[in-house]
Amino acid sequence: MTNTSNAVKKDRPWLIRTYAGHSTAKASNALYRGNLAKGQTGLSVAFDLPTQTGYDSDHVLARGEVGKVGVPVCHLGDMRTLFDQIPLEDMNTSMTINATAPWLLALYVAAAEEQGADTSKLQGTVQNDLIKEYLSRGTYICPPKPSLKMIADVAEYCYTNIPKWNPMNVCSYHLQEAGATPEQELAFALATALSAALNMALLLRGLRRADIFTPSLGWWRFTAQLGCAVVVMAGVAVWLATYWQLFDQPRWFAWGFWD
């Protein structure tokens, strides 16, 4: 239950979705529609490595990887097929995509427009955490400086055009898989969120802090796989304290408490 001033209301149910995508857009669409028919309430799209790194399926460097760890999306036709018969205006879609996040988000919006959707109502997330690609996974395309600009471009577009869309998901568990300790994982994740997503990328774009962060602190989310509960709690405390110092009016209700 959530206490909003004097009113008490029931929280919205959590989204239920599986991280999925494979072989072709058509086959993945069939999987999505089947899952939704069985009660799944959102979608989480896994893209194959060529799509993650900006290669078409027929590129020589894509050989052996097409459709292996996710769905290949090379153009608007693939995105249209991927969400065929799925009303995107009513859907909440997470797309785990980083280096090509601006392009994949553009294709998603275009597919929604073709469906006749009110794109201002689109809900979902793009991971768009390009910094951790240098530290762990390696699926980056551009040097850090233009990558930071793309993070900001996506955030600015979402803020002005699709305000219900989360333009970044700071994802830290890859760091632990690359050898970081829980403390290092948390430290790098916080550094990514603060330096890349806030200071270097957005605060320098001329958009007022209050316009972006006060109504939308829910944008900055963590996907963590930490082995120590103490580290997790310490990280939450640091995160909240940092926001309190940076912004005048933190969005406390994004964290589920009020007083």
Explain what this protein looks like in three dimensions.
- The chain has 259 residues and is an alpha/beta fold.
- The chain has 2 domains: 16-123, no CATH class; 127-251, no CATH class.
- 44% of the residues lie in helices and 11% in strands.
- It contains 10 helices and 9 strands.
- The chain has helices spanning 25-37, 49-53, 76-82, 101-114, 131-137, 144-161, 173-177, 182-200, 209-216, 229-246, and strands spanning 2-4, 7-9, 19-20, 43-46, 92-96, 123-126, 165-166, 169-171, 221-223.
- A 5-stranded parallel β-sheet has the order 3-4-5-6-7, covered by helices on one side. A two-stranded antiparallel sheet has the order 1-2.
- Helix 1 (25-37) runs parallel beside helix 3 (76-82) and helix 8 (182-200) runs parallel beside helix 10 (229-246).
- The radius of gyration is 19 Å and the shape is globular.
Task: Provide the gyration radius in Å.
Answer: 19 Å
Q: Kindly, what is the distance between the CA atoms of the first and last residues, rounded to a whole number of angstroms?
A: 14 Å
Anisotropy-based shape: globular
Helix and strand content put the structural class at alpha/beta
| Overall number of strands | 9
Strand content: 5-15%
**Overall average residue pLDDT:** 80
Helix-strand topology string: EEEHEHHEHEHHEEHHHEH
Helix content, binned percent: 40-55%
